[in-house]
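agent> fetching stored inputs for the adenosine-5'-triphosphate docking request
agent> found them:
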Amino acid sequence: MMQIFIPLNFLGFVYREMKGSLANIEKMFAILDVKPAIEDRSNAAPLEVSQGGIEFRDVRFGYGPDREILKGVSFTVAPRQKVAIVGASGAGKSTLFKLLFRFYDATAGQILIDGQDVSDVSQDSLRRAIGVVPQDTVLFNQSILENVRYGNVDADDDAVMAAIRHAQLDNFIAQLPEGAHTMVGERGLKLSGGEKQRVAIARALLKHPPIMVFDEATSSLDSHSEQGILQALQELSREQTTLVIAHRLSTVVDADAILVMQDGRVVEQGTHEALLGADAVYASLWRMQQRERRIDDVTLSP
Ligand code: ATP
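agent> prediction call returned; pasting tokens
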């Protein structure tokens, strides 16, 4: 009886774990809205990342033949720079990320990483080289420690704890009954949007890929969470080339460059100061957000 019980029980565990991870993969594709339809070229070589520089050269793309979404996008990101992408909803920001990952092929132009066209390299090597902090992070029904270790399953506890500290999660964890061993998810703790995104940052720090893409959550954060995310993001972009889709312009003030997208084109680029000086699209977005913040501050104050 025992002999049957244990394997069945174990199989049940494996099934639940597999179902969980399949659901997560499905969810990931749903979040990215992606069909994994692209295949490697027969002679695809692995991507060799030496520096982590990225270049978009006159990239054009549409999800269907009737509507062009990217209308000739060109920009370069130097190794270890932090570049923010801003612009109205629907401007094409996430589409840039999907093409960098080669979830779709551009209809014209080239996307290069350290001089290698993403359509020539194996997708496996491409995705290993790029870490993602998505808007909505999938957490497993395990401890915080294990959720972070997912970034690099070979990492020891010390390395995981260091990533947790760098992602500014240590103060939060110190308040939990079982610290980093506290379970999250269905049977455990529910994390706020900001805390979840910091778990994703800790994972990415542990994975330590040469290129990071960060899709900032649109959900509103209290200023304490926002500060935590900003510091964690600074940690993340210290050594890696980092691309950030930013919804809150406070995230982009210290970026090496800001790309302003409008209707499938990069219409402005420069530092925060330079773009404010230019007094065009970015400057008006900035003024609008400053006004909204002041209204929020007034509404939130007792
Ligand atoms: P947001 O800030 O709202 O996330 P965004 O700037 O990231 O917007 P994208 O998600 O890149 O914008 O979308 C650009 C345009 O492409 C939008 O008009 C969108 O409706 C369209 N689009 C996005 N994904 C698909 C898809 N899978 N099929 C068809 N159209 C799509």
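agent> quick read of the result: Residues 33, 63, 69, 87, 89-95 surround adenosine-5'-triphosphate (CB under 6 Å).
agent> awaiting further instructions
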